[in-house]
């Protein structure tokens, strides 16, 4: 029975990533169902460069796990989880723990170094050997995480982000209420002075 995975593949040379991506599109039997090249800027931000004639591009447009994963790594949630610019590192979680790859998604972030790129893919593999052999022969590094685990983490992280946003809104509401009370007290004191009370 075929298992579904999320996979990240990196190479020492960014040009090699593009070459391998092209070769993988023509390779049979490696089990890739959706894929994209992901760039990680020097500041840690993730993005998907414009693709040329990728047979897997439709999977991204239709909301594949790859698009969601890149969105988490490169979007506001990724920033909160410490995968982006250092100013937000550790805002919700211990970024040093995340950088050690304790979680499936963090493993992807750890593998893709700033200034480098990677192939992020969704696979359905009866055997992991064909893709492993391709990557080894091409001189790359591959990590594979069960797709269910990645989806579970995406859901958990989304729930955590929503809870953090709710807590932030509540804190802002409390601050505004306190500011209004202070303003009201100040205005009342000024009125008392004017009325000589």
UniProtKB/TrEMBL annotation:
**A Pfam family per the record:** DUF1269
Superkingdom, natural source:
Bacteria
Q: Which InterPro entries match?
A: DUF1269_membrane (IPR009200)
Ranges of Basic and acidic residues compositional bias? 167-197
Q: Where in this protein does the record put region Disordered? A: 162-197
Could you identify this protein by its name? DUF1269 domain-containing protein
Provide the species name. Nakamurella aerolata
